[in-house]
């Protein structure tokens, strides 16, 4: 993620307690949270690093952002003989609650702590100096002041690059010449998804029309409002769009439902993880692809760096070249005919021949 200025970042954290577009009380795909028996932290007993994973709102079981972080944690525990601690966030919690969560992990022996989401930037900045031997990372994070912490890494993503690829897919799949984008909250981070998507669509088909809707302008409920997501997407389908991409966290399940109701020949595109794999049986045939934001890769890489004694610090961006973003191909019947074209654009972005915009 490109570094925000101090003023814009501080303002943004107040408007974006849900980082990326994950983290909501709604489960995009309708599944229940994993059972306690599925918790790797309850069974891990190795002598490697002890990893703390502090979730964004919605926690493990969100079928998206938080679950991706957990997947990286699981891999790290298995490969590095690690143990782990998890911490759940609550909707609307105070900054002090996040600080306490991080502090408790450090005091309980965690040597690597990952805050899943933008909202942990301020709390990590407050807690990290008190634990200089502990390594901290913030997914989608920023440094809120001018004094860098030597034990903190800010793990960001080139969301615009992955969104460009699914924009190409949408334009190539569209028969109506109109596609749509639904964002959860209208802020700088989600605008990166919109910008990349529109750029990719217009690269593939310059005359394509892109309808854009945000569920909320600033209220974080936009990331946890399936009904709002459905209404926004339905409005775009009604305007002639036949493919709609969401960057709206838990609200995305409503976008999928809108595609189902729009009927055959209409499509939805998921985000963060391969949402085809966690969608309902009714939704699956309508999910064209998903923009993959590899929070699992970032979480794993951070744990790997700590295990190796060379912890990541400062700003790290995961882009197409690093397999930090991408697109899914699980719905092979829908996507197979498009992959050659999409991959050609991917190669051009990696080579630097295409610079993807970060603002609409």
From TrEMBL:
GO cellular component terms, semicolon-separated: plasma membrane
Main localization of the protein described in the UniProt heading: membrane
Pfam annotation, one family: Bmp
Name this polypeptide is given: BMP family ABC transporter substrate-binding protein
Keyword Cytoplasm belongs to the record: no
Topological category with respect to the lipid bilayer: Lipid-anchor
Domain ABC transporter substrate-binding protein PnrA-like: 56-358
Family to which this protein belongs: Belongs to the BMP lipoprotein family.
Location(s), subcellular: Cell membrane
Keywords: Cell membrane, Lipoprotein, Membrane, Signal
Position of the signal peptide: 1-19
